[in-house]
Amino acid sequence: MGSGFSRHRSVKFHPSVKISTLQCKIGQPFGEFTTMIIQQSLIQEGCWLDPLRSIVKAAASLRRECNRIMVAFYEGNLEETLQSILRTLRSGCRIERRSEFPSTAQLLLDGLDWQVELLIT
User: Most exposed residue of 21, 87, 109, 111, measured as fewest CB within 10 angstroms of its CB?
Assistant: First the structure.
């Protein structure tokens, strides 16, 4: 008789590995879902109320800052790190003003003469 692994011919069927296989199958989608919830809540807190903020730029900024969040979890200074990231989102991630093709937020904030606009198009 061989060892336990050769007897079962697969690591997958070994009793000590079944738990970790289950953790991998459940853990990865749960981790991705948790990450999306954290990202959405930080975007809402950081730039949701300002129409001239780019949510795409905010999401990219959060992807760049995710390592800081992991280190903050480890070190225990999560609140200060999140406040710093929120300040970054509030100060950056702006939509540039365009004169030729204005953004929707720019049109709504500057006002739009709908009667003239409908006659032109």
Answer: 111
